[in-house]
Amino acid sequence: MLLLGMPVAICLGASSLLVIILQGMPSQIAVQRFFAGVDVLPLMAIPFFILAGNLMDSGGLAKRLVSLANVFVGRVSGGLGIVTIMGCVFFAAISGSGVATAAAMGAIMIPSMVKRGYDRGFASAVVASASPIGVVIPPSISFIIYAVLTSSSVTDLYQAGIPAGMIMGLCLVVVVLTISKKQGYKGDDHPFSWSEALHAFKDASWALGTPVILIGGVFGGIFTPTESAVVAVVYALLIGLFAYRELKWTDLYRVFLDSAKMTSKIMLIISMALCFAYLLTYNQVPQAVMEMFLSFSENKYVVLMIINLLLLVAGTFMETSAILLITVPILLPVLQKFNIDLVHFGIIISANTAIGLMTPPFGVCLFTTSSIGQTSIQELSRRVIPFIGALIVAMAIITYIPQSVMFMVDLW
User: Fold this and answer.
1) CB neighbours (10 Å) of residue 267?
2) Which keywords label this protein (predicted)?
3) How many CB atoms within 10 Å of residue 281?
4) What DSSP string runs through 370-411?
5) Sequential pLDDT tens for the chain (412 residues)
6) Which residue from 106, 181, 249, 383 lies 20 to 30 Å from 354 (Cα-Cα)?
């Protein structure tokens, strides 16, 4: 069904229903499992984070974060490329979505980079490769789905996600610096001014307050991740309407409608996928997969390498939430057998799905950036290859040096 191009939710739901019928199980099981899949409290955070991201995008927060980053790093060679990566990291800590980050940052940064003499393909590639960091930097919708599937702590995932996102961002910065020096992309000639920096910081202070409130509130135990999503919506409304005044009352209908459409798509996939996961468990597929892995090797690091390769392949043709919902229930016994920390693996699989967002033929960040940057998919796919290599290096660091991301969990 996937190869025929059917929607992922229909593929999961129809194949689940077919198995139920063929195995002579009561058809009511399908309805029960579909409903039970979304009748989970932590999933309430998803529609609120999506709404908060859309409100903040319309409220002018993204361009202020870019201006702040440009004051500090815009003068170095490839400075606007680095600003783009920093802007994506900042906005990811607000929206929790790679696609929302690609749309917001692409519209602002690609025209700016082209105006400064950057090649359009390179400018689009920087946005396409940096925007997927949104699934790794908290608050992340992927973390919420993974926590529901594995009964892991969302707070621990948030803590480990911050250094993981920084590692991925730094690897991308190295590529930008290397290519920019080779191509002669110069930085801004405007001299640094403390008064300008102070003004930019003051202008972006409301936008910077968002990740501080969200992440700090969760880490400090003031509210749960689900409650933080509601706080984010209220904060985004107040800032967009009354502080920056770029969000108009007439915009709210469009923002709420777009958020509802995106939420319904994700929740439908979750509903169908958890029924699919139930049938996998019922038919002992995870146990069979574990035996297959054991036949390859009993070395934990070799198994992790095989899992990473499988996830990278899956990312080329499957959507992020679908990868999580299909693979995590199958791999859970393998993780338990090899004593792999579930929080650490949550970061690993999220990093894999981030790479999937920028690889054809299913890379939604690639498609979004291609449309905004007016670059062909073929050209953009070629230009992101060095960035994919950098993110694979970052993923290897995250996988094989666990303390590079887990130290935050241990410290807190």
Assistant:
1) 17
2) Cell inner membrane, Cell membrane, Membrane, Transmembrane, Transmembrane helix
3) 14
4) HHHHT--HHHHHHHTHHHHHHHHHHHHHHHH-THHHHHHHHH
5) 877 878 778 888 899 999 999 999 988 888 888 888 788 777 787 788 778 877 877 777 777 877 787 787 767 777 888 888 988 887 777 666 677 778 777 877 888 888 878 889 999 999 999 988 878 988 788 898 899 889 898 889 989 999 999 999 999 999 999 999 888 887 666 677 788 888 888 888 887 777 777 777 777 778 887 788 788 889 888 988 988 888 899 999 999 998 888 788 878 877 887 788 788 778 877 777 777 777 777 888 888 998 998 888 888 777 787 788 888 888 888 888 889 999 999 999 999 988 988 887 667 788 778 888 888 888 888 999 999 999 999 999 999 999 999 998 877 6
6) 181
User: Within 13 Å and on the Cβ side, how many CA atoms surround 255?
Assistant: 23
Residue 276: C-alpha distances to residues 33, 59, 281, 310 (Å): 9, 39, 9, 19
Q: Do 266 and 321 form a contact (C-beta atoms < 8 A)?
A: yes
Sign (positive/negative) of CA torsion 98, 402, 325, 224?
Answer: negative
